[in-house]
Design brief:
By secondary structure, the protein is α/β, with parallel strands linked by helices. It has 2 domains: about 230 residues, ATPase, nucleotide binding domain (Nucleotidyltransferase, domain 5); about 220 residues, Nucleotidyltransferase, domain 5. It contains 18 helices and 21 strands. Strands 17-18-16-15-19-20-21 form a 7-stranded mixed beta sheet, sandwiched between helices. A 6-stranded mixed beta sheet has the order 3-2-1-6-14-13, sandwiched between helices. A two-stranded antiparallel sheet has the order 4-5. α9 crosses α16, α12 packs across α14 and α16 packs across α17.
């Protein structure tokens, strides 16, 4: 029997970060143990929304040192985060300034200006294959250029968020492929920076780091607590989550990586760079082992998270479990919203914004917490169906099984509604898919796991899923017709 393999996964999300120790036993079972958890969130800096980067650096280093000082220290560490956001660093790897959050308002209108003044959408998509969202790195950097700020002149490298934190540990200034693909600056065919897109910004190509594949060893971290190898895992959190989808080869399957965002898609082996894919709002993000994630970013549980933030002001004891209970008791088939409407991106008061959307679209606004939550959950389920139909129109195939991974896999109501709305079975779990995929790709890089298929077999062996079968077809058909009219 092979000896155990231990790896530390540092997983940073928009609202919190955590470090989990993953142990793959000699008989191929993965166990996870939380080492440290800490809050995250953007802060207001002179009217701009930025990440508290120095605090994040301190939390990550503390988590690694804590794991190293334990009686079962990890052999490797890998960091994953959300995509698109970057850190401009000097020659020593120190941040020039606090990095902007993708929710900052500086990119409003930037995408349209870019199309108008620099390059049309068709050319960008034909190269990158990335869904157009105004906070993509391409447009964030365009705002840097247009603002005339000195940050770009002072910067030695532009590092994506997980790459910058890995640099803090070991000094490496390289960019992992899955997270680099979210920039909309890669050529999907060559899996490297697109000279055409980089030059369109007037950037010095030397600002951009070398791209490495997931699983690449990038350096060694040394501290008083010990030392360990730093590995670039699938450093985009969705890339890591999809690597841990417990699917088997054979019948067509799809996934939803369900959290603050819902990433709704399928795994493919070649990018789809057609006008049909562009017009369907599909993105070709980089995956593990030469794959691509053909998906759409949907504004996911962010709507509920922001509602809960407001509701807790009146009821501090309220939690997501109670919200889901009330949603389950609320009548079905009420008001619906488009989760991706721009008014839900960063509102001051999400419940009021949902009520306003309903009134403006000729619907009766939901009258209590349960009804609001039911509205959000049903709308998310219906938006998933819409995305799968768009994907099917491009690749000619609907999935037969839907895997829900991430935090949303714990939400039994949302999983059930999604199965009913999409009309296909939902297999939910693992909830800790991102950390699991992070650890699996670290193990692949060190040769402890031979393939992505083997890694997924370990996930199936380690975590028992929940299955939800569809029901209520005619009611959902009518709701979907109403939703399609609403969304347009």
């Amino acid at each position: 029997m092979a000896e155990d393999f231990r790896a530390l996964a540092v997983d940073l999300g928009a609202s919190n970060g955590r470090a989990l120790l993953g142990t793959i036993s000699g008989d191929g079972v993965l166990a996870l143990e939380e080492v440290r958890r800490f809050p995250n969130g953007f802060v207001d800096v002179a009217g701009s929304l930025k990440w508290d980067y120095e605090r994040l650096r301190g939390e990550v280093k503390a988590a690694v040192d804590e794991a190293l000082a334990s009686d079962r220290p990890p052999q490797t560490v890998g960091i994953d985060t959300w995509g698109v956001d970057y850190v401009l660093v000097d020659e020593r790897g120190a941040a020039i300034e606090q990095p902007f959050s993708y929710r900052d308002g500086r990119t409003r209108g930037a995408m349209e200006r870019f199309f108008r003044e620099i390059m049309p959408a068709e050319e960008i998509y034909a190269a990158s294959g990335i869904q157009f969202m105004e906070f993509n790195t391409l447009f964030q950097l365009a705002c840097e250029v247009w603002s005339g700020a000195e940050r770009l002149d002072r910067a030695h490298k532009m590092l994506m968020m997980p790459d910058a934190l890995a640099c803090m540990l070991c000094g490496s200034m390289r960019s992992e492929y899955t997270v680099a693909s979210t920039t909309q600056m890669l050529d999907a065919s060559t899996r490297d920076w697109s000279p055409r897109l980089v030059e369109s910004l007037g950037l010095d190509v030397r600002l951009l780091p070398e791209i490495v594949e997931p699983g690449t060893r990038v350096g060694t971290y040394v501290s008083d607590a010990g030392e360990l190898e730093v590995v670039a895992p699938a450093a985009h959190d969705t890339g890591a989550a999809v690597a841990a989808v417990p699917a088997e080869n054979g019948r067509p399957w799809a996934y939803i990586s369900s959290g603050t965002w819902a990433l709704v898609g399928v795994e493919i082996t070649e990018p789809v760079l057609t006008d049909a894919a562009r017009l369907a709002g599909l993105t070709n993000e980089g995956g593990v082992e030469g794959t691509f994630r053909l998906l759409t970013n949907v504004m996911g549980l962010w709507l509920i998270q922001e509602c809960l933030r407001i509701w807790k002001k009146d009821d501090p004891a309220l939690d997501i479990v109670e919200v889901c209970r009330r949603a389950g008791e609320a009548p079905a088939g009420g008001a619906l919203v488009d989760p991706d409407n721009e008014r839900f991106f960063a509102p001051e008061n999400m419940p009021e914004e949902i009520a306003g959307y309903c009134r403006d679209s000729g619907q009766q606004a939901p009258g209590n917490i349960g009804a609001v939550a039911r509205c959000v959950f049903e709308s998310l389920a219906l938006k998933s169906r819409m995305v799968f139909e768009r994907i099917a129109s491009v690749i000619g195939q609907m999935p037969e099984t839907l895997h829900v991974v991430g935090g949303g896999a714990r939400n039994t109501l949302l999983c059930r509604l999604t199965a009913e709305a999409c009309g296909i079975p939902v297999v939910a779990g693992p909830a800790e898919a991102t950390a699991s995929g992070n650890i699996i790709t670290q193990a692949m890089g060190l040769g402890r796991i031979g393939s992505l298929a083997e890694g997924r077999e370990i996930v199936r062996r380690s975590f028992a899923p929940e299955r939800y079968d569809p029901a209520g077809g005619d009611e959902w058909r009518k709701m979907y017709e109403r939703f399609r009219e609403l969304v347009g």
